């Protein structure tokens, strides 16, 4: 396992980050029970991984509960990351980045996780209704109290990152050290402005959906409905319009063309499409850690293998050219402004 520091901080994290959106089951797209989730966590930590990411909105809080129980006894060796923003109740102050909501959300996450501190506390998305000065001052209070060690954000634009860092500077408060953006061969929008902004303002990146929602695994074919037990199959069958839109946006012709090239490259290198797609992301400039979201122990092992290999320059350049050839418009379907779990 390789390690690096996260943004402009001394916090050391593994180049692989375990994402736990699939842990638990609450009628959404997740489908990993606690027994398998615990096996995944144990194997990830045994392999040298040290950063685990969850959120209070994942599977109705089940993900945090499962993670908390899984790391019991190993807490000090884990960089524990969670997020807040998503609705936690029916009231108008039960969501967002206000002082009122964040204070309650943090306490609830600490209870579910069974810990007295969170290593990386992140804003799950931007809140237009709350002044960023209020948000950053509130988060700084969490750090000063010892309940949070570091701060990050997820799905912020370049402008929102800058506004946040300036707000922290004005208040002599704790700035963000990380961003969670979407990034893969199918979704490269962060390269133009977001990655350069992260470099200038001291943010490392924990990139999510590196397999393009599973499209880059090569499991999906033109004209064929996704199998029911696949990620796209579950999204297509979801009652959530956002989930179905996500799947429709990913399963388009340009994306399937890119997936075909990933499969071809994998065959040439005698490896798997998963390994090729993950290695491409890990080797990109500006990527600190790659979030993997396995549902099974076998998937975890396959992901870790991919994150351990280096693509030869000719393969990297070929995939770079192929993915750039798709138009921005055709890739926008994969770059959705939120995760399909957002309403779960």
UniProtKB/TrEMBL annotation:
Keywords: Oxidoreductase. Residues 17-323 form the NADP-dependent oxidoreductase domain. The keyword Oxidoreductase applies. It comes from the Bacteria. GO terms for molecular function: oxidoreductase activity. GO terms for cellular component: cytosol. Pfam families: Aldo_ket_red (PF00248). The keyword Oxidoreductase applies. Residues 324-344 are annotated as: Disordered. This is Aldo/keto reductase.
């Amino acid at each position: 396992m390789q390690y690096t520091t996260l943004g402009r901080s001394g916090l050391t994290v593994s180049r692989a980050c375990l994402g736990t959106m699939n842990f638990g089951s609450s009628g959404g797209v997740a489908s990993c029970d606690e027994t398998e989730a615990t096996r995944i966590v144990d194997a990830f930590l045994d392999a040298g991984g040290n950063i685990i990411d969850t959120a209070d909105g994942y599977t109705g809080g089940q993900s945090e509960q499962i993670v908390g129980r899984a790391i019991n006894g190993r807490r000090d060796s884990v960089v524990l990351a969670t997020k807040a923003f998503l609705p936690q109740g029916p009231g108008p102050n039960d969501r967002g980045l206000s002082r009122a909501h964040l204070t309650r959300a943090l306490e609830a996450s600490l209870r579910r996780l069974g810990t007295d501190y969170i290593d990386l506390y992140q804003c799950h998305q931007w809140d237009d209704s709350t002044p960023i000065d209020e948000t950053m001052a509130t988060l700084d209070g969490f750090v000063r109290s010892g309940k949070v060690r570091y701060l990050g954000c997820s799905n912020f634009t370049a402008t929102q990152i800058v506004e946040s860092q300036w707000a922290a500077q004005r208040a002599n408060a704790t700035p963000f050290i990380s961003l969670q953006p979407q990034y893969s061969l199918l979704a490269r929008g962060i390269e133009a402005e977001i990655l350069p902004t992260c470099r200038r303002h001291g943010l490392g990146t924990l990139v999510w959906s590196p397999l393009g929602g599973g499209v880059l695994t090569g499991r999906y074919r033109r004209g064929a409905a996704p199998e029911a037990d696949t990620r796209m199959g579950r999204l297509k069958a979801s009652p959530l319009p956002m989930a179905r839109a996500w799947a429709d946006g990913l399963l388009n012709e340009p994306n399937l063309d890119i997936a075909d090239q990933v499969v071809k490259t994998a065959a040439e290198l005698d490896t798997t499409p998963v390994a090729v797609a993950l290695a491409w992301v890990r080797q990109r400039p500006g990527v600190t850690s790659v979030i993997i979201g396995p549902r099974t122990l076998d998937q975890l092992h396959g992901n870790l293998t991919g994150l351990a290999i280096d693509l030869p320059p000719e393969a990297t350049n070929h995939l770079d050219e192929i993915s750039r050839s798709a138009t921005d418009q055709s890739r926008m379907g994969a770059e959705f402004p939120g995760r399909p779990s957002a309403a779960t």
